[in-house]
Amino acid sequence: MKNILLISINAIGDTYLSLSSVPIIRENCNNCLITLLCKPDSIFLSNLCQIDDILVFENNFVECLRKLRSVKYDEVYSFFPGRMNTLFFLLSKGMKKTGYVNFRKNIDWHTNSQKITYLPPQEVTKYWYPTERYLDRVALILNKPVYKTKFKLKDQDISVMGSIIIHPFSKDIRRSFSEEQIIAIANLYYDKQVFVHGSKEETEKLNSKLPSNVKIMLINENISEFIFLLKMNIFISTDSFPLHLADSDNTRFLGVFTHTNPKSVLENFEKSVVFDESSFLKVGSVNFTEKLKTKLVALGYLGVE
Fold first, then answer.
1. Would you say residue 158 lies in a domain?
2. Do residue 74 and residue 114 come from a single domain?
3. Per mean pLDDT, which range of 36-50, 95-109, 214-228 is the poorest?
4. Hey, which of 76, 123, 264, 287 has its CA 20 to 30 A from 185?
5. Measured distance CA(39)–CA(37) in Å, rounded
6. In this structure, are 192 and 92 located in the same domain?
């Protein structure tokens, strides 16, 4: 039996995309044990596919490395850049290691070409280019097309049908909507219930100025429930993991972008709007509202007055 290690200690979205590799890995090796090295907030993603074991990194580098090096892996993969991803990739015991080596995941990493590293070295040279999709990072390494994994849904008893869900937050502050921009969206849908989706820490930053039709929807780990919500409602989101979920099922969503490229992030990139600024903080409320409204009308998500 082969031991295979997937390393993904980046954001949830990177881990979600990395797991698109699992069906191909199992197709190539039907007798293998796949271990995922990830952060605590990504553990729930292991339910997406057949992951046999999980190693959790909680800023405990020495302990985690000791556990990691207690196993000799036949294959090791790292599909996204970053200091910790690279360290574990290089220091793991692997007969064959393939990935992107970059000790610093710069905020503009997605604008630079990146070479695939093979250990032991191979004669072949491959690069991921910024004009390609993020999923192509995985496909280039596995030499086969890969696809976003879909969650299996269960019947849900939820009473928020016909609503608007906004996911305005990101760990990258440049991707986060301002409170004025959240209010602008809510005002476009003044006659509907609008939910602002985020963590307790993120939503606590919003003050009492939100319109009366706005309610807070806290993130939880019931992803099946959340996908059901996406299917039943209009979803407006910044470049984030929930946007990947909406895209994987091609729901009624709109991805709102600044410095990242929707053609790299989305399969259904026509459901996006791009502001030519490096951050939403630089986008004026009038420009934000008018451009968003035009796209929402074009997609049929907003009536023409």
1. no
2. yes
3. 214-228
4. 264
5. 7
6. no
Domain of residue 33 covers 2-142
Alpha-carbon span 225 to 304, nearest angstrom: 31
Helix (H) / strand (E) containing 27 = helix 22-28
221 or 198: which carries more pLDDT confidence?
A: 198
- Residues 6 or more apart whose CB falls under 8 angstroms from that of 135 comprise 17, 20, 146, 147, 148
The reported pLDDT for the residue numbered 157 is 43
Greatest Cα pair distance, the chain, in angstroms, is 65
- One domain, residues 223 and 287: yes
3-state secondary structure of 94: strand
Q: What pLDDT score does 221 carry? A: 60
Could you tell me the two tokens for 161?
């049908």
Query: How many other C-beta atoms lie within 10 A of the C-beta of residue 50?
Result: 12
Query: Which tokens belong to 32?
Result: 């293998």
Mean pLDDT to the nearest integer, 22-27 = 95
d(CA 27, CA 110): 29
Q: Which of 12, 139, 156, 8 is nearest to 82 (CA)?
A: 8
- Does one domain contain both 133 and 17? yes
Give the CA-trace dihedral at 96, 100, 103, 109, to 10 degrees.
Answer: -170
Q: Are strands 114-119 and 32-38 parallel, antiparallel or unpaired?
A: unpaired
Q: How far is CA 72 from the centre of its chain?
A: 30
What is the dihedral angle through the alpha carbons of 59, 70, 81, 198, rounded to the nearest 10 degrees? -40
The tokens of 145 are what?
């097309």
Split into its structural domains, the chain has a count of 2
Query: Which of helix, strand or coil describes residue 4?
Result: strand
123 Cβ neighbours under 8 A, 6+ residues apart? none
* 264 and 169 assigned to the same domain: yes
In a domain, 147, yes or no: no
